[in-house]
Amino acid sequence: MNTMSLCATHRMSASPRMLCLLLALAPASALADLLLHDAWIGAVPPTAKVGALYLVLENTSQQTVHLGRTTSADAARIELHQSVHAADRVRMESRETVPIPPGARVDFAITGHHYMVWFDQQPAPAPGARLQFQVEVIGATPLSVAAEVRRPAGTSVNAVQQQGPAGHPHEHAPIDDANVHDHH
């Protein structure tokens, strides 16, 4: 039973009704305390079908916020992944959600959480292109963000042409049924 249903089924004075209203609006206020910025997509060669979306999220609220799926009219598919370091390997694991604790900042990056984006167009978006995304916040309205396609700092056009299909210099290959990928 959700908060509003619970509140509606009990006769309450004004103060408890106000409390119920505030509880029902809590996810919306949590959204106001979630800052999403510096969204970008790593430039890939024109023939690449996959790229990666990176961004920064800051939770300035007093409660944990959970991010979920991301959608875009510019993408055929988007998956939430996390790079996991084990021994001398880095592997990518699919995730359903990412918890962001109160007061925490999470940098989506090549070496951590990131969204893998399967482009809906060919050639792949060129540096300077802007793509729109809607990032799901569990229990709240999705956040809209524009991400610019750009080369990672310190790379040249030639370096982008030599990168793997996800915008960084290694391949993503499934190794089991759990949506786990290895980076060599």
What's the order of the H and E elements? Answer: HHHEEEEEEEEEEHEE
CATH class placement of the largest domain: Mainly Beta
Point out poorly predicted stretches.
Answer: 1-13, 18-30, 157-184
Q: What gross morphology would you assign?
A: globular
CATH superfamily of the largest domain: PCu(A)C copper chaperone
Distance between the termini: 47 Å
Task: Tell me about the largest β-sheet.
Answer: 12 strands, mixed
Radius of gyration: 20 Å
Predict the CATH topology of the largest domain: Immunoglobulin-like
Q: Which range does the strand content fall in?
A: 35-45%
Tally of DSSP β-strands: 12
Q: What percentage of residues falls in helices of 4 or more residues?
A: 10-25%
* Class of secondary structure makeup: alpha+beta
Output mean pLDDT. 76
Q: How large is the count of helical segments?
A: 4
Tell me about this structure:
With 184 residues, the chain is α+β, with helices and mostly antiparallel strands. A hairpin with a 5-residue loop joins β9 and β10. It has 4 helices and 12 strands. Strands 1, 2, 3, 4, 5, 6, 7, 8, 9, 10, 11 and 12 form a 12-stranded mixed beta sheet that branches. It has 2 domains: 31 residues, no CATH class; 151 residues, PCu(A)C copper chaperone (Immunoglobulin-like). The chain starts with a helix and ends with a strand.
